[in-house]
Structures are given as C-alpha cells and as structure tokens.
Specification:
The chain is of the alpha/beta class. It folds into two domains: 212 residues, Rossmann fold (3-Layer(aba) Sandwich), CATH 3.40.50; 34 residues, no CATH class. Helices cover 41% and strands 20% of the residues. A six-stranded mixed beta sheet has the order 5-4-3-6-7-10, with helices on both faces. A two-stranded antiparallel sheet has the order 1-2. Helix 1 crosses helix 5. The chain is globular and about 60 Å long. The two termini are 32 Å apart.
Length: 299
Amino acid sequence: MNMQATASTPERILQRLDWQVIRRLDGMLQGDYRSLFYGYGIDFADLREYQPEDDIRYIDWNVTARMDSPYVRQYMEEREITAWFLLDLSPSVDFGTVQTLKRNVLIDFVATLARLLTRHGNRVGAIFYGNQVTQPVPPRGGRDQVLRLINDLLKQPYLPKAPLTDLTTLLTGGLYAIKRRSLVFVISDFISLPGWERPLNLLNRHHEVLTVRLTDPREIELPDVGIIVMEDSETGEQMYVDTHDWKFRDRFKKVAQAREMELAQSFKCAGVNVLSLSTEDDLVKTIVRFAALRRQRRK
C-alpha cells in the first residue's frame, strides 16, 4: 500500500505500483484481465430468447411484450473499453492510520486499474466529488493519462468538516456525463446521506458498474487503547470515550454491524458487484480475489 501518497510525485507512484503491484498481478492473473474488464459494446447485433444465465439488464421489454416470451438483446463486444472512475473524496475518506488513509488506498487502486486498462489499449476518465462534482476528466488512453489522473487526485484538497456527503450528487453527475456504454468504477466509503441506491441502480442499467467500498477496521471494531477523542469524519463533532469500557466497545460494534447489514441490502437493491477494500488489505490479493468472484458470477 502507499504509505505517503500525497508526498510522492505521480511518476514515482506509478513506478512503485508497476514494480510492487502490477508485476505481481501479471503473474497471478497470467494476463487474463477479461475477468475484471469484460463488458458489452454499444453495437446491437441480434435478438434471441432469454436463457436462465442471461443478464436481465439486456431483456428487450418491447419485443418480450409482443412475443409473450422474454427476449434479450445481443451486442458485438468491442475490443476497446472506455472506463470511468467516479471518486468520492469527501472528508470521511481521509480516515485511517498515520501510514494509510482511505484516500491513499483509493489513489493506489485507481492508478493500478487505470494502468492495467490503458496498457491494453483502453481509455479511462474520471469524475471527482468532494463537496461538489468536478468537471469530468475526459477518457483517454496511454501512460500520460494515468499520470494525469494521479496528479489530479494528489491535487484534490483535504476538505474541512462539512454536512454529510450526498453520493446521489456524484452518481447523478455520472449519469449525465457518461454518454456511451462504459465500464464504471464507483469508489467510496458510502458514508452518505440515504437515497444513493436509486441513481446507482440507474447507472448500473446503462453501464457495467463495479462498486468499490473503502473501509478501515477501526470503523467496525474499536481497539482497547484507553481514553481517546472520537471525531465525526464528516461534521467534525468530537467526544471523549473510554475504550477500556467493553460495554461501549460492544455497543459500537453492534451499531457498526447494523450499518454493514443496511449497506449490504442497499448494494443488493442496486444490483451491483461490491469489492471491499480496506486500509490493511494487500491490493494485489484483493484484486485477484475480485477477479475470481467475477469469473464465478459469469459462469
């Protein structure tokens, strides 16, 4: 993982990832990145009757109504992929340890995936969201585009505490900005006002959406380290707590577990694949695990 992402240059970050992450991925995936990057092009090819393993997003409802039997649209798969990164850079993403914030994990993940995609002739673009949606970075290919994304990420400010994030703004911005069918990575910790499930579902109907949830273990279970100051990462509100108190730690854990269950249900309603990416994860092993899950789902 990147220990000091914001203290490095884009070139040095990319060189480190090429050496420490991408070379290992090449060996473990043996060049088979289709399990991560498959998608359908925009060229309509044919209609055929629905089969149980088909993706329901490709059902043609007009033809289905006329034929009184479900039919799906088939598309010619494009050789080149256009990928977009919708990136949440709100205050809660700056939570973590001194060595690794969730923001650092986000930078490493985006740089790695952008490098893999552009290395195989694909194009990548991005939309950043802090307290508002930025002007999109248009999709382009090549190493220079990866360096531009890293540079733009490093320049994104660490925002002062503010009212809770509203991811609906980011997702709606993606719906308007991304015109042609694309591979879309939505990367966030999903600490947000409610209501983002519907725009995420709409985005998933139009594109191939992969959702990446940033986490830190201390958001799930508090360590026993004595009296600490806890701060709401979005609003800045602070309070002293005694983590020696096992009852308090137990209450904290139960609240966190309830939120995990709510998030799981929200992702299920949106119909998206979810990759959990922790500040303590090995990025290579996480990506390989995700590739295996996507291969399994495609069978």
